Structure formats: structure tokens, C-alpha cells
Automatic annotation (TrEMBL):
Name this polypeptide is given: Rad50/SbcC-type AAA domain-containing protein
Catalytic activity: ATP + H2O = ADP + phosphate + H(+)
UniProt-annotated stretches for the region Disordered: 1089-1110
Organism this protein belongs to: Tetradesmus obliquus (Green alga)
Superkingdom, natural source: Eukaryota
Chain intervals with Basic and acidic residues compositional bias: 1096-1110
Gene Ontology cellular component annotations, sorted alphabetically: condensed nuclear chromosome; Mre11 complex
Length: 1283
């Protein structure tokens, strides 16, 4: 095996570990990698990581930081041979990569190298880890559980046989693969139960399929009969439909003629009403023309009218142009007004700015004068300004301003120079004092540091001296111990030689060989006797089998009797007719099947009768549906007509009378319609009379005006007018009245036209009113016929329902009988067949048992048992003798090993004592040197303390001097900074005030004021000119509007004449149309004759329709029955029913055979598992007992055993290790010492390896003698040599 990069193994390691046969010992100090070797062997073979390593394996592989690399690749390469001695190599690789913050571990793909059997060439294949983990144990010939728990057990898990119960059960279950086989047993048991349940379900399904097959045949016959009947009914319906269509054609032709006559009559009524309206309108229009009709033709009037309209259009264009000019002038005037206001506002702002400038100049001069006086600055020209201070507008000259500013800046420069010079002097003084302070600090620090170093050295030396003193005191008795140990060694050597001589004299090996040969002879004799005994016992099994067959026969008869006593069996017997005596199971089922078929025939007859009655019910349903459809259609038509009449009445725009509204609310639409027509006619007549009165009043006013002007008197009261003013007043009043009359007449005409339109709309629904009344008369007869058909249908439905209930009861009874035949019949027949088979088997077994001689066999078996008992007694005696020899040999060996161990320990103690004596002498010399060094250090410490005081006083005086100097410097610099700050503030205040004064001059505000004054005068002149033009244009527009009004009156008069002539021509055209329609009515035919012929054709069509509906009802029933049969037949349960029945029968038989086979497999596997587990546990316990007795020489434990306690009825075991002493068993866990625990676990692992590792002779033990004394270690090794 080659290991790289695992724990302490270097990633560059190339040293191969070779394991020798039969034993390889690896010896090394702690951390050398001994346990790592076993971990690598286990990982290579099983893929399991060591326990408790954490980090998913990255802690097992060498850390890259330890190797000084960013990546470490680890590898395990193991070469071994398969169970067939073929070599193969397993290579497993890992990788640790150091990331920024984490360590990433990765398992690379594993490689398996094998040799081709034919070519002997090496072949390497890369696998996933999960695949190779399963392949390697298979090649080694052992399971993964044996590799993990027996062969390559980690040191931390080596004591698992004495762990808790759950752990030891888990380990043993994995070793025995008990979980797998237990699951297999459970799976077989479940499969057997499932198959048994499937057999029952398949039998039920088979019976169901048989009943479905019979029903499918019945449905097919019903479909064939129904299809033939449907074809006959369909032919009859086609003939009746042809007759109905012929009558419908006749009725449609007559309806067309009647509709044509009705349309012509309606059109005549409409035309006459229009003619009346047009005649009245023409008369009215003619009366409104003051001068009557014009003499000019229509063409001349049209030309004159167009000329007037063109003139109006031109005048309108001119007026629009003037209006646009007027708008432009108005906008210009408004613009000038806005600009004038803006200029006035700007002028006001400039005046305010001039006043503010004067104030700013005065403020600046006052500030300048006050500041100069305060600072002692002389201003040129300031005296003249002060003398004229009472005059307005006097300011300081520019020379004074420049002199003030220059003096301020000069003083600031001088002060800044003084401050700089003062700071340089202060910094020089500070540096000088700081240098002296640093020198004093350095001197003080050197003195303190020397003292501290010497003190620390003294403390360390004192501690070392104390330690040496303690060692000298502790080793004072060492010389005496060395002498005593030397004497003890000599005594142990003498005793060991004496024990070796005694062991050679006893010669235990020869005695043990004799006992072993005797035991082998006894075992051979016992094996021969057991074989002979087994042959006699097999001959005696025939009687036992006969008894078993008889018992099985009796149990089968009891089960058959129990089935016959069940409720389903009693029902089956009653169905068969209660035969006496009770026939055999198959014959009973045959009788029951015959009776069941008779019941099914009765049910089928009832079903046929039910279908006939359902067909009659369907025919009556068809007739009832036809009657209902006729009634519903008539009601729907009535509702439509009522809705039309209601909508017509609701379309009237005028307020309806209360009787009309009451009729509408009471759903009396006919009465509401008639009342609405009467109301419209009444209102129209009233409106026409008002229009005639208005015409007469107009004529009267004309006569009054004409006679009053001619005779100068009032025509009404026949009074003469006193003067012209009264005449003018009368003329004015009459003219006003006559001007109102045309508008009233127009209003009356519009009202009459609207009323005529509404009245014509109502008259258009007169046919609907007539049809509604006719339908209401026929609906009574339709309802009576429907009620009669409903009564017949209900009676037939009651009969069908009664027959349905009877059929349902029969169907339920038949289903129960079928279930009884299915459940009980098959079970009784099968059980009876089983009784017959068991009877034959019992007879054959009894015949074979009669041929054997029981007495002779029993006598021989007793003799063989006695001989076997004697041989077993001799074997136990030989075993006891061998055990006694083993114990005696073990005691002598233990004593010899104990003495050897004591001698080795004494020699080691002597060596240690001599070494301690030499160390004592060296410690005494070191103690003397330490005392001398401590004296020198104490004198050095006192000298250092004397230098610290003066240095500290000098440093404190320099610090106080520096603090006083700093305070004086800060006060002088502060005074200069205050003067400089005052000058800077005066300069900034002056600059701010000067900027306000200079800003006014820069904006040129005085020139802007002069310009705005001139602009205001120009804007006022332009505004006044625009206002004068606006007045002129407004006068011109007023004159044009008067002329347009005059032309409009003339246009209205001409249009009225043209309208009158058009109305007159329309009346003449209507008169011609009325004459033409009157001639058409005579050409169509007599209306009464057409109505009589239509009634006869309609009656014949109704009769044919009644016959067709009856046929259709029957056809519908037949088709519904056929569809029902087809739907039933199309049900998935009837699809391919014959093939499904045959397939279900085959599945039933095969499933029964599978259930029987599963039962056999379950019993065989259970017996095999029991035998395997019992045999293996016996072998393991035998090896454990033998190795314990050879290894352990104590008197408290005779031997140990592994107990497997069955858990419940399932093949599951709980394991525990027990120790036996004097025939008493005690659980070893918690009662044994550490050495006993290690020895027991080691022996159990050796026993498991001997039992399960026949094909893999490998065992790795990690420090197996831990907690074992030397004797047990030697004996354990000696035991291993025999395996």
C-alpha cells in the first residue's frame, strides 16, 4: 500500500508498505501513523472515512498550510488479491484546496486496476465512489459490514461488542445481513397476502365479468330490435312531413295574398291621411301669404332668390372684413394701453432707486468720517465737507477716500510683520527649552530601565534557585533506592529460572496432543452413530406423515362444514331448492346456477315489459310536448304582440289619460291601445280646430285693419277714431297681433303633423291587435288539450314507476343471489375438491405407514441413543481433562510471564534511579552558581536607584519653566492679533458701503428715466388715434346690418311661396297613388274566400302534425332505448367483454399458483435463515469459548458467550455478551474490567473473522494488547496461530 498526503504522510511520500504473510507488525511512537495505516486500508476497501474526524474528510487530508502549498493532493493505492487469487489495485484520490477564507475538500474519482483473464494485460477503469465501494468488497469475497466491523476496525470502535444494545444489534444485523433477509421475508409475506387477496378479488371480478357478458348479449339483441322499429317509424314520419309541407305551402300562398291585401289597405289609409294633412297644410300656407301666390314662375323665383342670397353673401364678406379690421384696431389700442402702464411702473422704480443711492452715499461718508476720527487718520478735504455739512448733496472727495483706504492697508501690513517676527522668536525659545527637557527625560529613562532589567534578572534567578533547591531535596533518597532496586532484580532472576525449569518438566504439549486425539476418535464414533440413527428416524416418519394427512383431512372437512353453515351458503341452498340429502359441492353449485338462470330470465321478461311501457310513456310524452310547444308558441306570440302594442302606446310623446295608464298597469294592452287611439284622434281634432280658428282670426284682423284705415272707425265696436293717434294705436295693435299669428299657425301645424305621425304609428298595429285577439281565442282549446294529454301521461308514468320498483327489487335480489353463487359456490366447490384430494393423500400415507415395522425401529433408536449418550459423556470427560491441562499450563505460563514483566520493570526502575542520582549532583553545582550571580545583581540595582532621583528633579524644573514662557508668549501675540482684526473689520465695512454707491453709477439709472418719459408721450398719441378708428368702423357695421335684415324678410316670403307650391304638388301625387292602389285590391282577389281556404289548409296540416308528433314520440322512445342500450354496451365494463372474461380466468389460475409458490418460498427461506443463523452463532460461540479458556486464566469467568434473543415472531434478534461462572450467566457489559473488556472484544472479532472470512484471510489489529497484561497478550497470540 502507498499512502500520500494523509495525516502525517507527506504528499511526496514514495515508500510502499508491504504486508507479509502470515503476520506484519508495525511498531512506532505516538503520531508515527500506525492507526493511519488501518484507516487507509479501510478507506481503500470500503470508502468509509475514519470516525470523529469532522470537516467531511478535509481534516484527514494534510492541510495545505502545513505543506506550504495552496493545494494538497492525497492518494491511497492498495494492491491485493481477489478470492480467486487474481491481483487488482484500488486507487483513491482526494484534494484539499486553500481558498481565501475556507478549506475546500474534494473526493476525486477512484480507479480500479485489474488483469484480463485471457490476455493478462492490465486494465484500469475509473468509477464513481459509490460504484467502487460496492465492487471492492465483492472482489475480496466478504461483505462491507465484515470489512467495517471485523477486519478493519478503528481503534476508537474496537470495543463495539460490549457497546449498548442498539449498537451491537446494528453491527450483528449488518454482519449477518439480517435486515436484508428480514425485509425479504416480510416482502414475501406481504406478497403472499396480496396474492391471496388478489385471488379473492379476481374471483369476484370473474363473476362480475360473467354477468356483464350476459348483459352485453341482452343489450345487443335490444339494439337490433329497436333499430328495425326505428326505421319503420322514420319512414312514416317522412310521409307525414311531406303532407305537412304541402299544406304549409298552400297556407303560405294564401297568407301572401292576404298580407298583400292588408298592405294595400294600410297603404291606402296612410295615403288618405297624408292627403288630408297635405291639403290642410296647403290651405294654411296659402292663407299665410298676404298677397296670395305670386305671378312669377318657380324658375324666376329661384333665380331672384339666388340673386338675393348672393347679395347677402357679398355683404357678409364685407362685414366680416370690417369686423376683422375693428378687432385689429381694438387689439392695437389694448396693446398701447398695456405698454403705457408698464412704462409708468418702470419710471416709478427708477425714481425710488435714485433716492436709495443718495442715502447710501451719505451713510458711507458718515462711516468714513467716524472711523478716521477713531483711528486718527487725516482725510484731505474733510474740513471743507464738514463746514458745508448743512447743505444737501455735499460728499467727501475721492482723495479723502483713497487716503483712508491706503492708511488702513499700511497699518495692517506693519502689524502682520510684527506678529511674524514675534512668532519666530517664540519658536526659538520653545525649541531650546524642549531640547533640555528631552535630555533630562532620556537620562531618567536610562536609569529606570537599568533598575528594572536588573530586578527582573534577580527574580528569574531567585525562581531558578528555588526550583533547584526543591530538586536537590526531592532527590536526597535516590542513592538508597538504587541499592534496593539492584537487590530486587537479582531475586526476580532466580525465581524466573525456577519457573522455566518447572514448565519444562511438566511437558503440557504432549499431554494436550493425547487429549486432542482421543476427542477426535470420540467425534468420529458419534458421527457414525448419528447417521445410523437418522436413517432409522426417516423410516419412522411415515407414520407421522400419515397422522398429519389425517389431521389435514379432518381440518378440511371442518372448513367445508363451516362454509355450509354460512349465510351465503344457506342462501345458495335455498336457491337450489333445499335438496335432501345435500349434494356434493360441484353438484350444489350446478343446481344453484340453473335456478339463477331461471331468475335472470324472469328479470329479463320484466325488463322487456318495462321497456314497452316506457315506449308508450315516451309516445305520450311526445304528444304532451307537442301540445306544450303549441301553447308556449301561442303564448310567446301573444306576448310579442302585447309587447308591440305596449311599445306603440309607450311611443306616444304626449301625456296619456288616466284610463290608458290604468289599462297599461293592469296589463290590459288591447284596451290601452284603443283608448290611446281615441285620445290621439280627439287631441288632433282639437288642434286642427285651433288652427282653423287662428286662420279665421287672421282674416278678421285683416278686415278690421282694412276697414279701420278706410273708414277711420273700429269695426268691432263701430266707434269712430277721435284723431290719428288712436288710429295709429289701433293699427299698431292689429299689426302686432297679426305678426304673432303665423308663428302660432306653424306651431299648430307641427303639432298636427306630430299627432298624425303618432296616430299612423298606432294604426300600423291594428293587424297585431286582431292577431292577438284571435290567438287568445285559440289558446283556450290548446290548454284543454294539453291538460288531457298531461293526465294521460301522469297515469302512464305511475304504471311505469310501479313496474320500475318491482324490477329494482328483482334486480337487488338477483344481485344478492349472484354474489351468493360467486362467494359461497366457488368456495364450497373448491373446498370439496380439497377434501377429496386430502382424502386420497391420507389413504396413501396410511398405506405406506402400514408397511413399516414401528416396534423394531423404536427399539433400535433407543439403543443408539444410549450409545450416543455414553460417547457424549466420554467426550465431556475428555474436554474437562483437556481444560484442566490448559488451565495448569496457563497458570505456569502466567506466572513465568508475570515474573518476566516484574524483572523488566525492576531493571527499568534501576536505570531511572541511577540517572536521577547523576542529575542530583549536577543540580547541586547549579545551585551554588545561582547564589553568586544573585549577589552581583543586588549591588547593581542599588546603584541604579541612586541615579533616578536627581534626574527626575531636573526634568520637573524644566517643565515648569516651559509652561510660564508659553503663557507670556500667548498674551503678547493676542494683543497684536486684536489690533490687526480691528483694522480688517474697518476695511471690510468700507468696501461693502462703497460697492452699494458704485453699483448705482454702473447701471445708468438717470439716462433710463429720461428715455421712459419720452416713450410715455408717444404711447398716449398712438392709443388715441386707434380709438377714433374704432368708432368709425362700428358705425359702418350698424348700417350694413339693417340692410341685411330687410333682404332676409324678402327671402322668407319667396321661400314660403315655393313651399306652398311643393305641398300642393305632393297632394296631387297622393291622389293619383290612391287611385292606383284601389285598382290593385280588385286584382288580388276576395279577402273572405282567401281566409276560408287558409283555415281549411291549416286544419289539415294540424291533423297531419298530430299524427307526426305521435310517430316522433314513439321514435324518440325507441331511439332513446337503443341509445340507452348502446350507452350501456359502450360502457367500459362491456368493452371486449369476452376477451376480458377469458383473460381474467387465466389471471385467476396463474395468481392462485403464484400464491402457492410464494407460500413455499416464504417457509423455505425462513427455515434456511433460522438454520444459517443458528449454525453461525454456534460456530462463533464455540470459537469464543475455546479462545477465552486458552487465553484467560482468572477464576471469576469460566467462558463468555454471545446470546441472540429472538424479538417477537419475526426473524429479528437482540444480541448481548454474557460471562458464565459456575453455570450462572451474567451480562458482561458494565461488570467487567478494562482488560477483560478488551480481551473479550478481541476474541469476538477473531471468532467473527474465522467464521465469515473464509475467502479473505486479512485481519488488522490496532494496539491489540492495550490494557492486557503480558500473559494474556502471549496467550492471545498463541491462540491466533491456530486460525
Amino acid at each position: 500500500m502507498l499512502v500520500k498526503g494523509i495525516r502525517s504522510f507527506s504528499p511526496d511520500n514514495n515508500n510502499v508498505i508491504e504486508f507479509y504473510k502470515p503476520l506484519t507488525l508495525i511498531v512506532g511512537s505516538n503520531g508515527a501513523g500506525k492507526t493511519t495505516v488501518i484507516e487507509c486500508l479501510r478507506q481503500a476497501c470500503t470508502g468509509e472515512m475514519p470516525p470523529n474526524i469532522g470537516g467531511n474528510g478535509r481534516n484527514w487530508v494534510m492541510d495545505p498550510k502545513v505543506a506550504g502549498e495552496s493545494e494538497v493532493k492525497a492518494q491511497i493505492k492498495l494492491r491485493l488479491r481477489t478470492s480467486t487469487q487474481m491481483p487488482f489495485v484500488v486507487v483513491r484520490s482526494f484534494q484539499n484546496v486553500q481558498k481565501k477564507a475556507t478549506l475546500q475538500f474534494k473526493t476525486l474519482d477512484a480507479t480500479l486496476q485489474t488483469y484480463n483473464k485471457d490476455t493478462h494485460a492490465k486494465e484500469a477503469v475509473t468509477y464513481r465512489c459509490a460504484d467502487i465501494n460496492a465492487m471492492v468488497p465483492s472482489l475480496m469475497g466478504v461483505s462491507k459490514a465484515v470489512l467495517d466491523n471485523v477486519i478493519f476496525v478503528h481503534q476508537e470502535e474496537s470495543n463495539w461488542p460490549l457497546a449498548d444494545g442498539a449498537t451491537i444489534k446494528k453491527k450483528f444485523d449488518e454482519i449477518f445481513a439480517a435486515t436484508k433477509y428480514t425485509k425479504a421475508l416480510e416482502t414475501l409475506r406481504k406478497l403472499r397476502l396480496e396474492k391471496t387477496q388478489e385471488v379473492k378479488e379476481m374471483r369476484l371480478k370473474l363473476d362480475t365479468l360473467k354477468s356483464h357478458k350476459d348483459m352485453a348479449a341482452s343489450f345487443s339483441a335490444d339494439i337490433a330490435a329497436g333499430s328495425a322499429k326505428a326505421e319503420r317509424l322514420h319512414a312514416d314520419i317522412q310521409q307525414l312531413q311531406a303532407a305537412i309541407d304541402g299544406h304549409a305551402v298552400e297556407v303560405a300562398a294564401m297568407d301572401a295574398k292576404l298580407d298583400q291585401i292588408a298592405d294595400v289597405v294600410d297603404e291606402l289609409s296612410r295615403l288618405r291621411a297624408q292627403l288630408e294633412v297635405l291639403s290642410a297644410a296647403a290651405s294654411e300656407k296659402l292663407s299665410r301669404l298676404d298677397g296670395g301666390d305670386f305671378e312669377e314662375s318657380d324658375a324666376e323665383l329661384d333665380a331672384f332668390l339666388q340673386e338675393l342670397k348672393q347679395t347677402d353673401a357679398e355683404g357678409a364678406s364685407r362685414r366680416e372684413s370690417r369686423v376683422n379690421e375693428l378687432r385689429v384696431k381694438q387689439m392695437d389700442a389694448a396693446s398701447y394701453e398695456d405698454r403705457l402702464q408698464q412704462a409708468q411702473q418702470q419710471l416709478s422704480r427708477l425714481q425710488a432707486a435714485a433716492e436709495a443711492h443718495s442715502s447710501n452715499v451719505a451713510d458711507r461718508d458718515a462711516f468714513l468720517t467716524a472711523t478716521a476720527a477713531k483711528l486718527g487718520i487725516r482725510l484731505p478735504g474733510a474740513a471743507a465737507a464738514a463746514a458745508a455739512g448743512s447743505e444737501a448733496g455735499v460728499v467727501l472727495p475721492l482723495a479723502a477716500l483713497d487716503a483712508f483706504l491706503g492708511e488702513l492697508r499700511r497699518r495692517q501690513a506693519a502689524l502682520q510683520g510684527e506678529v511674524v517676527a514675534m512668532r519666530e522668536a517664540h519658536r526659538a525659545q520653545e525649541a531650546d527649552v524642549a531640547g533640555r527637557i528631552d535630555a533630562a527625560n532620556a537620562e531618567l529613562a536610562r536609569a529606570q530601565q537599568q533598575g528594572a532589567l536588573k530586578t527582573a534578572d534577580l527574580r528569574q534567578l531567585q525562581a531558578r534557585r528555588d526550583n533547584l533547591q526543591q530538586q536537590v531535596v526531592a532527590m536526597s533518597a535516590v542513592p538508597y533506592q538504587a541499592e534496593e532496586l539492584k537487590l530486587q532484580e537479582e531475586d526476580l532472576c532466580r525465581r524466573l529460572e525456577a519457573r522455566k525449569g518447572e514448565e519444562a518438566r511438566q511437558d503440557f504439549e504432549a499431554q494436550l496432543a493425547q487429549q486432542k486425539a482421543a476427542l477426535e476418535r470420540l467425534a468420529a464414533d458419534m458421527t457414525a452413530l448419528r447417521g445410523e440413527r437418522d436413517r432409522f428416524i426417516m423410516a419412522g416418519d411415515a407414520a407421522g406423515r400419515a397422522r398429519l394427512a389425517s389431521n389435514a383431512l379432518q381440518a378440511a372437512r371442518d372448513r367445508l362444514e363451516g362454509l355450509l353453515q354460512g349465510s351465503a351458503a344457506r342462501q345458495l341452498i335455498e336457491l337450489a331448492g333445499n335438496p335432501q340429502p345435500l349434494p356434493h359441492g360441484a353438484e350444489l353449485k350446478r343446481l344453484a346456477d340453473a335456478a339463477l338462470r331461471a331468475r335472470e330470465a324472469e328479470v329479463k321478461r320484466k325488463s322487456t315489459q318495462l321497456r314497452d311501457m316506457e315506449a308508450e310513456l315516451a309516445r305520450r310524452s311526445g304528444e304532451l310536448a307537442s301540445k306544450r310547444r303549441q301553447r308556449v308558441a301561442a303564448e310567446a306570440r301573444c306576448q310579442e304582440l302585447r309587447h308591440e302594442l305596449r311599445r306603440a302606446v309607450g311611443s306616444i310623446s304626449m301625456a296619456l289619460d288616466q284610463p290608458v295608464l290604468d289599462a297599461l298597469h293592469g296589463d290590459d294592452v288591447e284596451t290601452a291601445y284603443e283608448l290611446a287611439v281615441q285620445q290621439l284622434e280627439r287631441v288632433r281634432n282639437a288642434a286642427f280646430r285651433r288652427m282653423e280658428k287662428s286662420s279665421a282670426f287672421n282674416n278678421l284682423l285683416g278686415m278690421v285693419l282694412e276697414d279701420g284705415q278706410r273708414e277711420c272707425r273700429c269695426l268691432v265696436c263701430n266707434r269712430a277714431f277721435a284723431n290719428d293717434e288712436e288710429l295709429a294705436e289701433m293699427v299698431s295693435y292689429v299689426e302686432e297681433q297679426r305678426q304673432e299669428l303665423p308663428a302660432r299657425r306653424t306651431m299648430y301645424e307641427q303639432e298636427i303633423a306630430e299627432l298624425d305621425r303618432q296616430l299612423n304609428g298606432l294604426n300600423a298595429h291594428l293587424a297585431d291587435l286582431a292577431g292577438l285577439r284571435e290567438l287568445q281565442g285559440s289558446m283556450e282549446a290548446t290548454k284543454a288539450a294539453e291538460q288531457q294529454a298531461q293526465a294521460q301521461h301522469d297515469s302512464q308514468a305511475e304504471q311505469v314507476e310501479s313496474l320500475h320498483e318491482e324490477a329494482n327489487l328483482l334486480d337487488v335480489e338477483l344481485t344478492s343471489l349472484r354474489r351468493a353463487v360467486t362467494d359461497a359456490g366457488w368456495s364450497i366447490a373448491k373446498q370439496a375438491a380439497e377434501v377429496d384430494d386430502l382424502k386420497q393423500q391420507a389413504d396413501a400415507a396410511a398405506e405406506r405407514a402400514a408397511q413399516a415395522s414401528g416396534a423394531q425401529q423404536l427399539r433400535q433408536v433407543e439403543e443408539l441413543d444410549a450409545e450416543l449418550a455414553e460417547l457424549e459423556r466420554q467426550q465431556r470427560a475428555a474436554d474437562a481433562a483437556r481444560e484442566d491441562l490448559n488451565r495448569r499450563q496457563g497458570r505456569i505460563k502466567d506466572e513465568r510471564m508475570r515474573l518476566s514483566e516484574q524483572l523488566a520493570a525492576a531493571r527499568e526502575e534501576l536505570r531511572k534511579a541511577e540517572q536521577a542520582n547523576r542529575a542530583r549532583l549536577e543540580t547541586q553545582s547549579q545551585l551554588k552558581a545561582a547564589d553568586e550571580q544573585m549577589g552581583v545583581l543586588r549591588s547593581d540595582i542599588e546603584a541604579a536607584k541612586a541615579r533616578v532621583g536627581p534626574a527626575q528633579q531636573a526634568r520637573d524644573g524644566l517643565l515648569a519653566q516651559r509652561d510660564a514662557m508659553r503663557a507670556t508668549q500667548l498674551a503678547a501675540e493676542g494683543a497684536k492679533q486684536a489690533e490687526l482684526k480691528e483694522l480688517s473689520a474697518a476695511e471690510e465695512a468700507y468696501a461693502a458701503k462703497q460697492r452699494l454707491v458704485e453699483g448705482y453709477g454702473a447701471e445708468q439709472k438717470e439716462a433710463q428715466m429720461a428715455q421712459l418719459t419720452q416713450q410715455l408721450a408717444e404711447l398716449k398719441d398712438k392709443r388715441d388715434a386707434c380709438n377714433r378708428e374704432i368708432v368709425s368702423l362700428q358705425q359702418e357695421l350698424d348700417q350694413s346690418a339693417a340692410k341685411v335684415a330687410e333682404n332676409q324678410n324678402l327671402v322668407k316670403t319667396i321661400e314660403a311661396v315655393i313651399d306652398y307650391r311643393a305641398t300642393k304638388r305632393q297632394a296631387e301625387q297622393l291622389q293619383q297613388q290612391i287611385g292606383t292602389l284601389t285598382q290593385q285590391i280588385g286584382q288580388v282577389g276576395d279577402r273572405n274566400e282567401l281566409q276560408a281556404g287558409r283555415a281549411a289548409a291549416e286544419e289539415a296540416a294540424k291533423e297531419a302534425q298530430r299524427q307526426r308528433d305521435t310517430k316522433q314520440g314513439s321514435l324518440g322512445v325507441v331511439l332513446e332505448q337503443v341509445k340507452a342500450s348502446k350507452r350501456s354496451l359502450a360502457d367500459p365494463k362491456y368493452a371486449q367483454i369476452h376477451a376480458r372474461y377469458r383473460k381474467q380466468l387465466i389471471e385467476l389460475k396463474t395468481t392462485e399458483m403464484a400464491a402457492a409458490d410464494l407460500d413455499k418460498y416464504h417457509k423455505a427461506l425462513e427455515r434456511a435463515l433460522l438454520a444459517f443463523h443458528t449454525g453461525k452463532m454456534a460456530d462463533i460461540n464455540k470459537i469464543v469459548k475455546e479462545m477465552w479458556q486458552k487465553t484467560y486464566r482468572g477464576q471469576d469467568i469460566d467462558y463468555i458467550q454471545i446470546k441472540a434473543d429472538a424479538e417477537g415472531t419475526a426473524r429479528s434478534y437482540n444480541y448481548r455478551v454474557v460471562m458464565v461462572n459456575g453455570g450462572v450467566e451474567l451480562d458482561m457489559r458494565g461488570r467487567c474490567s478494562a482488560g477483560q473488556k478488551v480481551l473479550a472484544c478481541l476474541i469476538i472479532r477473531l471468532a467473527l473473522a474465522e467464521t465469515f472470512c473464509h475467502n479473505c484471510g486479512i485481519l488488522a489489529l490496532d494496539e491489540p494488547t492495550t490494557n492486557l497484561d503480558a500473559g494474556k497478550g502471549w496467550r492471545c497470540g498463541a491462540c491466533m496461530l491456530g486460525y
